UniProtKB/TrEMBL annotation:
It comes from marine metagenome. It holds the Pfam family AMP-binding. This is AMP-dependent synthetase/ligase domain-containing protein. Residues 145-321 form the AMP-dependent synthetase/ligase domain. The lineage of its organism: unclassified sequences, metagenomes, ecological metagenomes. InterPro entries: AMP-binding_CS, AMP-dep_synth/lig_dom, ANL_N_sf, ATP-dep_AMP-bd_enzyme.
Length: 322
């Protein structure tokens, strides 16, 4: 479907969107006709919200709200307008033979759509979370931006050798975000990370989320067999790792995976030495400000974890911000 909408998204958000939209309106008196603007403002929520207002409240893109709303309207009103409603208005009339799908500003690869399709929620429980605003439009990048603006000098990272403020962390994240986007990575793409608990792990985590990517974590002790399984199964487009960990030649394993798996296009290595075939982490940290046309929203997946695989192969567990 358009704009990253899945059937699961329609099932989860459809009823709450219909309830919040202009389809259901509760008004007291006639403040619109009487031009009582104060009363209009008071009754705004009951009069129904626009797609943009609903999107900001429940954590979807406005386009996603529009697609879901039209499908639900078709369900309730028994009308066949799920194509007609995209570009009517302003004197336009529906001409089936002239219709063209609107140009999408959001493109998600098939792998990213498959990950979204794996997200299933109980619609009744989701409706409660949305109505109580427990599910909202918060994201990691939104939190980081807010902290950097409100408390720029407060320490975000403290190590044995340095302190990094929220403003400094935001700058580092922006640099890496630009570097990763420069590799062609975009919304819905999976970036695997096998790093220990160091500053660069957090920077990568926040940068991947900033452009709408999904971070896949790889346990540090994992060697060749486990790494191969996880990268192939997740269809990661890039991986960030150390040159080696203990006796494990990590970057060489990653480069071999790049040759074997079509989805894996980039191996980024963190370390002082140049590795043939790999991209240096530091080279992606050039000072820059990212331009993100489609920033993440609350309903987006941002993290792909895996179970331990005790009884069988590990299972992928995608998580959204909500």
């Amino acid at each position: 479907m358009a704009y990253g909408v899945t059937q699961q998204m329609i099932d989860t958000y459809g009823e709450i969107i219909f309830k919040l939209s202009l389809n259901k309106q509760t008004r007291i008196g006639d403040p619109v006709r009487e031009l009582d603007f104060d009363e209009i403002a008071q009754q705004r929520a009951g009069s129904g919200l626009t797609d943009e207002e609903i999107a900001a409240r429940i954590g979807l893109l406005p386009e996603q709200v529009g697609v879901v709303r039209v499908f639900i309207e078709r369900k309730y009103h028994r009308i066949d307008q799920h194509r007609m409603l995209f570009h009517l208005g302003g004197g336009k009339r529906w001409k089936k033979d002239r219709y063209q799908d609107p140009k999408e500003r959001l493109k998600i690869r098939d792998d990213g759509m498959a990950l979204r399709a794996a997200l299933t929620f109980n619609p009744d429980r989701a409706a409660i979370y949305l109505e109580q605003e427990l599910w909202n439009n918060d994201t990691l990048s939104g939190w980081l931006t807010a902290h950097a603006a409100e408390t720029p000098d407060t320490s975000a990272i403290i190590t044995s050798t340095e302190r990094v403020s929220y403003e400094q962390l935001k700058n580092k994240v922006d640099c890496l975000t630009c570097g990763l986007m420069g590799l062609g990575l975009g919304k819905g793409d999976i970036v695997a990370v096998q790093l220990p608990n160091i500053q660069e792990f957090l920077i990568a985590y926040l940068a991947i989320g900033s452009f709408g990517g999904v971070m896949q974590t790889i346990h540090m002790p994992y060697a060749k067999a486990d790494i191969e399984f996880l990268l192939e199964h997740a269809k990661a487009r890039a991986v960030i790792c150390l040159p080696a960990f203990k006796e494990i030649p990590t970057v060489q394993i990653m480069l071999e995976c790049k040759q074997k798996y079509a989805a894996l296009e980039h191996v980024v290595v963190l370390g002082p030495e140049t590795v043939t075939g790999a991209i240096e982490f530091s080279s992606l940290m050039a000072e820059n400000t990212p331009v993100i046309g489609n920033p993440p929203v609350g309903a987006d997946p941002y993290l792909l974890l895996y179970t331990s695989g005790t009884t069988s192969n590990p299972k992928g567990v995608p998580l959204t911000y909500q």
